[in-house]
Every structure is written in structure tokens, then in C-alpha cells.
Write a structure and sequence with these properties.
mainly beta; globular; Quinoprot_gluc/sorb_DH_b-prop; 6-blade_b-propeller_TolB-like; five-stranded antiparallel sheet
């Protein structure tokens, strides 16, 4: 009898301990996201976590005709639906839109970590296998709806970024930058891709974006880190957490900028011709740190990862230390908030969304998995000034929301953002399997 009583008491204590752990463990934000945005975000003391806060919006999809919610003065409609995890887009010279239907390659590793990752990815809508496909969308009559959807390329390896240069279409596979000949108006490419340079695959941050530099001769390729803070050693981060500059004619390259944990969206500022990027910052410093950011990038810049964040704040978890880097760690230009998962970036250049969105940058925020409450899950606009940088005291302006329903479930998650040939804003929704088009009300 005593044995049974002890077992019952043990189970009760276990349940109590589990409840206390559950209530105390997830780190709850002490600041609203707004206070960790802008040129001068509030940087609090880190709250280092051994077990990360896990709070990701469960994906339910768009049901009963639901759609995202645009800002006042704007409207939204589906440009294309029925896609398979669309992540990134590229507009061809004739106005056709290429969409990378893609996802992470199969992940290595098992055990508890692998199981947790699998559960999280499934809940977030990212557990589907990669289609490894580029699809062409054509809106021939300019009504804002793609009436043609056709397979453009297959047989790729988690493709992401795409860009044209000198009659070649360049594609960022997870393990290589490749290219194929392109003819204006082509609707299908069957040529075998040619290797330009190899890229280090594996680990986290699989997506490789590629854009054409302002010089019209070179390319920029973003390669994110394989880990959170180089916990597997810096050898595993070789040529990662970098933006690479590539000379495709000679197949040569160099590190253009470093210390960027995951520089995903890249774009050339049409006003200045300078390279800008959005970056996903590190995890497990609490729900208020560290802010993802938008910044101009120049040759030789180092933004501190993994040793420093936000221009010199040390991350005490990283070993070995690197004190000599602190004074050279560049501070980003603009904070977007903690854990918003800033992925998409495009400038307003040829957008026609009205005077309020005429000079600035649009950012696709995929949404947090490790902040309580969640952050991101929307498209925002950062107003710029005449200097070519974000305007003084500017805060992010919501452009497209409603990706979370009233219950906090994810109906969709925005990723890539580009403008279409008529000045609308296209938004890739990878778990809603759609491309949304935002335009000005008539």
C-alpha cells in the first residue's frame, strides 16, 4: 500500500514540477515589438535560455474565402493559388513572374533535437518536402491575376534566389549557384544547369538568395549560418553568415560582407545604387532580443555574428571570445523587432501604391517561432528619407496583415516580396500556397 501511495505522490510531484516548468520556462516579452524597432531600438539585458521559448502559430490555411488584410487605401487579391510552398519570386523583363516552389532539403540528425525540429516545422507548415521547382506565372491582360501557371524548371536542389545577367538565368540552389541560358519570353527551360560556384550546404538556413549588383557585372549571394551562434564550431561556418560577391564570367568570388547570421532578402536601393539586406538575428536571448534588421552593406563590413549583435553587444555564450572585433562590429541601420523572421525585401522603386508607399522598402516578416507573444506574420513598409536611409524616427508601417486569425492560428506566412509589371506588390505566402497582389484602391 505504501508503495502505491509513494508512486501516486511521485506522479503528483512530477505533474506539479512539469506545470511550474511550463509556466516559468517560456520567456515572455517585457517590451512591445514597437520599442525594439527603428534606428534606436531598446536593447535590454539578455535573458539567456538553455531551452528556447517555443511558440509558433499553428498553420490552418485560408478557409472560407479568407484573405490577408491590407492597409487603408490598399486592396488585396490572389495573383496565383494552388502552389506548393512558394517562397521566392523574380520578375522577368516581359513581366512574367518566376516562383521558387521550394523548402528545406532533408535534414540530417535525429534524437530529441531532430524530433523537436520536425514537430515545430510541421506545426509551422514547413514540414512538406521541397518541390524543387520553379513555376512561371503570366498575367497577359494585366488584370492582376495570373491566368497562366506552368512548370518552368525542375530537378533543382532547394532553389531560392533567381536573377538574370547577360542572357543567363542564375539560380541559388542550397549547395551551389548555377545558371542556364535564357531567351526573353521563354516558358520552359530543360537545359542542364551549369555550376558557377559551390556553396556550403547543411545545417540551418538553407535558402540562398542571389541578385545582380549595381555594376551589372557581378552577383551577390547570401549564405546564412549553419547554426544559431556557431555552437558547432567556426569550421562548420566556413564561408557562411556571409554575403558573397561573384564574378560569373570567371567563376571567381570573394566574401563581400560577414557577420550576418542569415542575410536572406537582398535588394539594390534604386535611389543610391547601394546593397541592402534584411537579416535574421540569433535566438535564445529571450523574447526581446536580438532584433532582426534592415541595413545597407558595404564591402568589408562585419556585423558581429556570432560574437556580437546590434553593433557591439557581446554574446557571452560564444567561445572562444573575439574582443578585437567589438570595435569593428558594424551597427545595422534599422531594427525590425525581435524574432519577426524578416525574409523578403524589395524597394518601392516602381511600386504604384500611392504617396505613402513611394520611397521606402517592403519587408516580408515570416513570423516568430520562439517569442511569447508571437511577432511578425505580416508585410511592413519602412519609409526612407532623401538621404537613402530610413527616415528619422520612422517606424514600420503595416502593409499586409491578417495572416493570423482571431485564434492566433496562421492562415498564411509571408516570405518574398516583389513588384509586378503594373506596380502592384506581390507577396509569396509559403504555407497559404498563394501569391497575393496588393494594389492601390481606385
Amino acid at each position: 500500500m505504501r508503495k502505491h501511495i509513494l508512486i501516486v505522490l511521485g506522479l503528483i510531484l512530477l505533474v506539479i514540477a512539469a506545470g511550474v516548468t511550463y509556466l516559468a520556462w517560456p520567456d515572455t516579452a517585457k517590451l512591445p515589438v514597437d520599442q525594439v524597432t527603428g534606428k534606436l531600438p531598446k536593447i535590454t539585458d539578455p535573458r539567456i535560455q538553455t531551452i528556447p521559448t517555443v511558440k509558433v502559430a499553428k498553420v490552418v490555411g485560408w478557409q472560407n474565402g479568407a484573405m490577408p488584410t491590407p492597409a487603408a487605401g490598399l486592396k488585396v487579391q490572389p495573383f496565383a493559388t494552388g502552389l506548393d510552398h512558394p517562397r521566392w519570386m523574380y520578375r522577368l523583363p516581359n513581366g512574367d513572374v518566376l516562383v521558387a516552389e521550394t523548402n528545406s532539403p532533408p535534414r540530417e540528425g535525429g534524437g530529441i533535437t531532430g524530433w523537436v525540429m520536425k514537430v515545430l516545422m510541421g506545426r509551422a507548415g514547413a514540414g512538406v518536402p521541397s518541390a524543387n521547382r520553379i513555376t512561371l506565372l503570366r498575367d497577359a491582360n494585366g488584370d492582376g491575376v495570373a491566368e497562366t501557371k506552368s512548370v518552368f524548371m525542375t530537378g533543382l536542389n532547394s532553389p531560392f534566389g533567381m536573377t538574370l545577367l547577360d542572357g543567363q538565368l542564375y539560380i541559388g540552389n542550397t549547395d551551389a549557384l548555377v545558371r542556364v541560358p535564357y531567351t526573353d519570353g521563354a516558358t520552359k527551360i530543360t537545359a542542364k544547369p551549369e555550376l558557377v560556384i559551390k556553396l556550403n550546404p547543411g545545417g540551418n538556413h538553407w535558402a540562398r538568395n542571389v541578385i545582380t549588383a549595381a555594376d551589372g557585372k557581378t552577383l551577390y549571394v547570401g549564405v546564412g549560418s549553419s547554426s544559431n551562434i556557431a555552437e558547432n564550431g567556426m569550421d562548420a561556418e566556413k564561408y557562411r553568415a556571409n554575403i558573397l560577391q561573384v564574378w560569373p564570367k570567371d567563376k571567381n568570388w570573394r566574401i563581400y560582407a560577414a557577420g550576418l547570421r542569415n542575410p536572406n532578402g537582398m535588394a539594390i536601393n534604386p535611389k543610391s545604387g547601394e546593397l541592402w539586406t534584411v537579416v535574421n538575428e540569433r535566438d535564445m536571448l529571450g523574447s526581446d532580443l536580438a532584433p532582426d534588421y534592415l541595413t545597407q552593406v558595404e564591402f568589408g563590413d562585419h556585423f558581429g555574428w556570432p560574437w556580437y549583435y546590434w553593433g557591439g553587444y557581446p554574446d557571452s555564450r560564444v567561445e572562444p571570445k573575439n574582443p578585437a572585433l567589438q570595435q569593428y562590429s558594424k551597427r545595422p541601420d534599422y531594427a525590425l523587432g525581435p524574432h519577426v523572421a524578416a525574409l523578403g525585401l524589395t524597394f518601392s522603386g516602381d511600386a504604384k501604391l500611392g504617396a505613402n508607399f513611394a520611397n521606402g522598402a517592403f519587408v516580408g516578416e515570416h513570423g516568430s517561432w520562439n517569442r511569447k507573444p508571437v511577432s511578425g506574420y505580416k508585410v511592413v513598409y519602412i519609409p526612407f528619407g532623401d538621404t537613402g536611409f530610413p527616415a528619422a524616427n520612422a517606424k514600420p508601417v503595416d502593409v499586409l496583415g491578417g495572416f493570423l486569425n482571431k485564434d492566433g492560428d496562421a492562415q498564411g506566412r509571408p516570405v518574398g516580396v516583389i513588384t509586378d509589371k503594373t506596380g502592384g506588390l506581390l507577396v509569396a505566402d509559403d504555407v497559404g500556397n498563394a501569391i497575393w497582389r496588393v494594389s492601390a484602391r481606385g
